[in-house]
Design goal:
The protein is built from 11 helices and 12 strands. The chain has a 5-stranded antiparallel beta sheet, with helices on both faces. Strand 11 and strand 12 form a beta hairpin. It is elongated, with a radius of gyration of 29 Å.
Length: 393
């Protein structure tokens, strides 16, 4: 493929994600002109290179992506580096791989595209196709994170422009990978914060309830202790941002079993779940904070018994869940502040759950709280049954 033909097509990739472009061009196979066919092949090749690059600048990802990048550039060989060393080489003239860091040093330092001639790309083999190099830095935000080098018998103006554009596209993939990593770290930090916020209160009350049965009903104390162990094992697991609704509800059921041991007949629970929604992937610990709020609002601030109703319904492409109690309720403004993340009274983690739902599924999928003083509280949430990137682990 001629590098000049690649330049026009690759320039589009900087503005539009490769996967979307693939779907657009895939719908039409009947390209009339050579330029259209070249554009199609270029976009398709870029789509193949994108997934390994989205894992970040790694040796494994670079090794998988480089054959596609070389096809994009039409060069004899290509190399990809980070700031420390060569990640991978693909193509002819493999003996030059040892020189790559010398070739990219200036590009890494100056952040500009460099063209190297036969003096810099020295070779004793007269048949070697690696005589010139075009090197472009890879940048994320305001720092250089690596370099892309294309090698060939010459360094035409078309190849220089193509390397520059492909390097920009690879930089975007690296930046998206960094954003994915930061999002995962943020989600993990939010879950850790939620655990720290919930567990002291619940652990103390649960152990106190279990201790009350040790002498009067040892068998029940043993069963409750096992349930407590399973609940904490799930709550403090260290892998996976998502789980299934079935697993989340199973953990909620253990939580309610332990709370009923503490409150006895004062706590009444109704649970209605459509079997169709049990496999739905949901954010980890998205229900337990809501249910704990319902229990505490339903009983701790109310005289006499309290009732909690949990409903999970199949709503076509969505799963809809509600947690309702008949407790003391709260002022709507207080609920609004709780959703904003403020530590309001006995409200636990509602802002955390709301923020995570919106971050994963979109702004329209946050919590909805209906409440008033003396009228109880109903918290509703809905989630898509299928969402890109959301998989239970």
């Amino acid at each position: 493929m001629e590098p000049v033909l690649s330049v026009l097509a690759v320039g589009l990739l900087v503005l539009v994600p490769g996967a979307v472009l693939w779907r657009v061009v895939h719908a039409r196979r009947d390209f009339g002109s050579a330029a259209e066919r070249a554009t199609y092949e270029t976009l398709h090749t870029a789509t193949l290179a994108s997934p390994p690059l989205r894992s970040g600048l790694t040796a494994a990802g670079a090794e998988k992506a480089l054959p596609h990048l070389r096809a994009l550039l039409g060069s004899s060989a290509v190399a990809l580096t980070d700031t420390e060393g060569v990640l991978a080489w693909d193509g002819s003239g493999g003996t030059h791989a040892a020189q790559v860091m010398d070739h990219v040093r200036e590009a890494l330092a100056s952040s500009g595209t460099q063209v190297l001639g036969t003096r810099q790309v020295a070779c004793l083999d007269p048949s070697c196709p690696v005589l010139h190099a075009v090197v472009a830095p890879l940048t994320t935000e305001d720092r250089v994170v690596g370099a892309l080098a294309a090698y060939g018998r010459s360094a035409s103006a078309g190849l220089v422009r193509a390397v520059h554009e492909v390097a920009r596209w690879v930089s975007i993939q690296a930046e998206l990978a960094e954003l994915d990593r930061q999002r995962a770290q943020l989600a993990d930090a939010e879950v850790r914060a939620l655990r720290a916020q919930i567990s002291p209160h619940f652990v103390y009350n649960s152990l106190t309830a279990i201790a009350s049965f040790v002498r009067t009903d040892p068998e029940r104390a043993r069963e409750l202790l096992l349930e407590f162990a399973e609940f904490t094992r799930y709550s403090f697991r260290t892998h996976g941002e998502f789980t299934t609704l079935a697993e989340e509800l199973r953990s909620v059921d253990r939580y309610l079993l332990l709370e009923r041991a503490r409150f006895g007949d004062r706590l009444s629970v109704t649970l209605r779940v459509a079997p169709e929604v049990l496999p739905v992937a949901v954010p980890f610990l998205c229900l337990q904070p809501v249910v704990e709020n319902a229990v505490r609002h339903g009983l701790e601030g109310k005289e006499g018994p309290g009732r909690v109703v949990i409903i999970a319904e199949d709503a076509g492409s969505e799963c809809r869940i509600s947690v309702e109690d008949d407790g003391v309720g709260m002022d709507p403004e207080t609920a609004r502040r709780a959703l904003g993340g403020e530590p309001v009274g006995s409200s636990i983690g509602l802002g955390n759950v709301d923020e995570r739902l919106r971050a994963v599924f979109g702004a329209e999928f946050g919590l909805v709280v209906e409440t008033a003083r003396g009228a109880g509280t109903k918290v509703s949430l809905r989630m898509p049954k299928y969402h890109a990137g959301v998989h239970a682990s």
